[in-house]
Design goal:
With 69 residues, this protein is of the alpha+beta class. The protein is 64% helix and 14% strand. A two-stranded antiparallel ribbon has the order 1-2. The longest helix has 44 residues.
Amino acid sequence: MNKNKLHTMIVFLGSVAILTIGGLVLNQIYNNHQSNNLIIEKCFNHFNKEGEIVIKKDGFWSPVACESK
C-alpha cells in the first residue's frame, strides 16, 4: 500500500469515527430532552394546585428535578 492510500484510509476512518460519535451524542441529547419534557409535564400536572414550582437541573447530562415551594 503506498503512502497516499494509507493517508486516505486513515482520514476516511477518522471521519467515520467522528460522525459516529457525533450521531451518538446527538441521539443521547434527544433522549434526555424527551425524558426531561415528560418529567416537567408530570411536575406541572402533579403540582398544578400548589403555588410555586421550581425546576432544577444540575448539569448538561443530568435530568431535571421538580420541587414545590
